[in-house]
Design goal:
The strands form three sheets. This protein has a three-stranded parallel sheet with strand order 2-1-5, sandwiched between helices. A two-stranded antiparallel sheet has the order 3-4. It has a two-stranded antiparallel sheet with strand order 6-7. Helix content is 43%, strand content 12%. α6 crosses α7. By secondary structure, it is of the alpha/beta class.
Length: 190
């Protein structure tokens, strides 16, 4: 699929680039397999991963993509990706099959598109879906598409507001959830 899409670099945005179930997707094995196919590998999960380390990057135990996007390390990671994309055809790799279920779309691709990069999502059948079409699906699955808004409502949100709300709603539904900390349990007992 990568070769058919013309990809020559994979940017791995997994926070933990390993897999017990599929060991060939672990960082070291994957980098070697990609090299054999003439495709480069860049580990970028430290800056662009979906499992943040800081407590302030969670809201009620759920990774907060909007807070993550404001971090300097994240923006530096985007800069690095943008530089890479200037001379390579880059594919972001994470663990989810469906773009709308993954931070690579809801966090990383969103911010790259805001920077003016042309984004496409390789779907399970090899088709490449333009990011704008993915955003339309996002609006639909979150119930925020134009058809769902009352046309007579003068205060109905515009396209940008609906899209931002759709990103927030979907991220809240699918983002990484951290396990409660011991301090959380102690606070509950008080």
């Amino acid at each position: 699929m990568l070769q058919e899409a013309g990809v020559n670099v994979v940017a791995d945005v997994r926070s933990v680039p390993a897999s017990r179930h599929f060991p060939w997707f672990s960082k070291k094995n994957l980098a070697a397999l990609l090299a054999q196919a003439g495709i480069g590998y860049e580990a970028m999960g430290d800056a662009l991963g979906g499992r943040p380390r800081g407590e302030t990057l969670y809201s009620d135990g759920v990774a907060d993509y909007e807070a993550m996007a404001m971090q300097g390390a994240f923006r530096t990671g985007l800069d690095r990706l943008q530089d890479l994309a200037a001379h390579s055809r880059v594919c972001l790799l994470c663990a989810e099959r469906e773009p709308l279920d993954c931070h690579r779309c809801l966090l990383v691709a969103r911010r790259l598109a805001e920077r003016g990069l042309r984004i496409g999502h390789i779907l399970h059948d090899g088709a490449i879906e333009p990011h704008a079409a993915t955003e339309q699906r996002l609006l639909s699955v979150t119930g925020l598409s134009p058809q769902d808004v009352d046309a007579c409502d003068l205060f109905a949100p515009g396209q940008e507001e609906r899209l931002a709300a759709a990103y927030r709603r979907r991220a809240r539904a699918v983002a990484f959830r951290r396990k409660p900390l011991a301090s959380d349990h102690m606070a509950e007992k008080r």
